[in-house]
Amino acid sequence: MGDLMRARDRRRFRLIVLAIAVGIVLAAAACSSTSENDTTTTDTTFATENPPSGEDVSAGQALFDQRCAACHTIGGGQLVGPDLAGITDEFDDDWLHAWITDPAAFADVDATAAELYTGAMPALGLSATEVDDVIAYLHSTSDVEAPEAAPEGPRELSTAEFDEASQIYFNRCAGCHGTLRAGATGPAIQPNDRTLEIGTTGIETILTNGLPGGMPAWGESGILSADEIELMANFVQIEPPTPPPLEIDAITESWNLIVPVADRPTEPETARNWDDFTGVILRDAGQVAVIDAGTKETVAIVDTGFAVHILRASATGRYFIAVGRDGRVTMIDLWTETPQIVAQVQGCFDARSVESSKFEGYEDQYIVEGCYWPPQYVVFDGQTLEPLVVHDVLTPDINGKELEEVRVAAIVASHFDPVWVMGLKESGFVGIVDYSQPDFPLTNKIAADLFLHDGGWDHTGRYFITAANAQNKLMVVDVKTQELVAGIETGKTPHPGRGANWEDPEYGWVFATTHLGEGKLTIIGADPEGRPDVAWTVVREVEIPGTGSLFLKTHPESPWVWMDTPLSNVEDETRQVCVYNKETAEMEKCFAAADHGRVVHFEYNKAGDEVWASVWDKKGEIVIYDDKTLTEKDRITGDWLVTPTGKFNVFNTANDIY
Ligand code: DHE
């Protein structure tokens, strides 16, 4: 009996560990540094010509082979999911039936299921009869013995291999799993708690095929070769290297003032409407294209560095500031005849956010960069990018847990106070940095929730609304009183980008987000003065066909809200855009915007009568829609348009119009 108990405990442990392991990749996918070739195509469709009749072993075996065998074996050793030998001895048929039918729903009502469920195992959409058939097949394998062999450990890596793997990890994995692999948007993948348990074969399977929740199929999509997958499967079972710090002296050494302020024009040299320029990130080319939104002409293409992530316009709009995954900040002057880089600096080894000072009297005075690694923010001079100060943001999390890594996620600049507001990802705190004080200190940390990712202002610019995507919540911080005012459950892994603000016909001002984990637009009341009865509650939920949405966008002049689903597991859905009608409060339509690549991110022109979408592909395109008629107006193409992702209109970005 004791042995049986130990065996059960071992199995339970194995199931938990592996269920968690599957979760690693599921949560990770959406936030991955997906490039133009990424095609996460997990086929979830299933059709049987002769529907099984229930408790039919051969029908159950066919179902198992089609729907389960990618993750589970019976007696063959573990893959991504646990080996299922002897599973019918462990759990009775009713339990198995409920689990296979819908593990998430079952976990809500059953303690054991709740212990095992991590969001990894999907509901397969099987009928009750089909589930019975699968269980019948599992019974037929009850004499198969579970393999005794523990998963093999990692092989030794040479220094060159270790360095190569570290670079691949940084490029492809660190954004979601963290530099130290402690997890955040994606779960932790450290040797002791996860990867050794999954083993080399299991990890290779995950990396090759991805998983239904959206983990990119790095192998299948051709991004990583079989050799690279083998290397990474071993690498993540070894303790991660500790990345070095980057201190002020080294940052200053990297500073390159290309055009001193005295040599810059004192008024615009260009005859173009520079405040209606749109900067387009050419992600894999490491470039930014500056396009005249009026004429659609490409005014300049500048080299900004590895996997440039976002652009922000300075408060006056004169400068575009780019930040790259390599932590490099680039300042582009838009007043010269042709936009040109005037300064560059590297404040971090890894970064995603940058913002300028926007409060009256401080316009274009300072720039702040938020680092993913090291855990710090860096303040620069807003004209020259000269580094002024570096501040550590390492702190225990809101529950008192000590952390080794805290990444700076979204940063917004207040228009009413001399402060930047930043999500301190792993810690769950929203930080307030006062740039009117000497030394630019972090003056307050407001406890919100885990793990903070992207976000933006409400329509008044008083409330910062940010995703705590591990908690499926939007958190609302009142920046005036510096208090948390709400945490609202919206759906699986909200991803608002900057979000979208408009006046709903029934609920007053609202803010909205889409989700990575489910096909849903969630609209929350954001009008505490006009409609306090519904403020900071969910007022509408609208179905979107397809998961994997990253961005939505609207404009005060627009009757619509546009949204994408580039990380859907269904290939067609990665190219669709959906348009919600603010007036009727219904989805107006969804349609394919391209026949290749993934369609991602929207931006309006200054007038708010055109919307631009990127076709994220090696042969990229920008599709421009007439925002009144929803018809295609223009399509920018060209060999130079490599992997376009984010687009940032000068006027809209400087004034936080979304
Ligand atoms: Fe982003 C915004 C982090 C993957 C395109 N992205 C942000 C912000 C953060 C962030 C913290 C908010 C910045 C701000 O407002 O100050 N992004 C991350 C990641 O950690 C993640 C998930 C994984 C990674 O390894 O980087 C990730 N992001 C992506 C992509 O794969 C995208 C689609 C293409 C790319 O560049 O890699 C992408 N992220 C964007 C864009 C924005 C953004 C276009 C700005 C949206 C806006 O409208 O302001």
The appropriate CATH architecture of the domain at 246-272 and 304-437 is: 8 Propeller
DSSP summary, beta strand count: 33
Structural class: alpha+beta
- Give the count of helical stretches: 12
Strand content: 25-35%
Bound ligand species: heme D
* Major sheet strand order: 1-8-7-6-5
Helix content: 10-25%
Mean pLDDT: 89
Morphology? globular
Distance from first to last alpha carbon: 63 Å
Which regions have little confidence, pLDDT < 50, spanning 5+ residues?
A: 1-52
Q: Fill in the CATH topology of the domain at 246-272 and 304-437.
A: Methanol Dehydrogenase, Chain A
Give me the Rg, rounded.
Answer: 25 Å
What summary fits the major beta sheet?
5 strands, antiparallel
The fourth-level CATH homologous superfamily of the domain at 246-272 and 304-437 is: C-terminal (heme d1) domain of cytochrome cd1-nitrite reductase
Q: What is the CATH class name of the domain at 246-272 and 304-437?
A: Mainly Beta
Characterize the structure shown.
The protein has 658 residues and is of the alpha+beta class. Among the domains are: 2-140, Cytochrome Bc1 Complex, Chain D, domain 2; 159-235, Cytochrome c-like domain (Cytochrome Bc1 Complex, Chain D, domain 2); 246-272 and 304-437, C-terminal (heme d1) domain of cytochrome cd1-nitrite reductase (Methanol Dehydrogenase, Chain A, 8 Propeller), CATH 2.140.10.20. The protein is 21% helix and 30% strand. Helix 4 crosses helix 7, helix 8 (159-177) packs across helix 10 and helix 9 (191-209) runs antiparallel to helix 10 (226-235). The longest helix has 28 residues, at 2-29. It is globular, with a radius of gyration of 25 Å. The N and C termini lie far apart (63 Å). The structure holds heme D (DHE). Heme D (DHE) binds at residues 31, 33-34, 175-176, 185, 283, 309-310, 352-353, 409-411, 453-454, 497-498, 550-551, 600-601, 645-646.
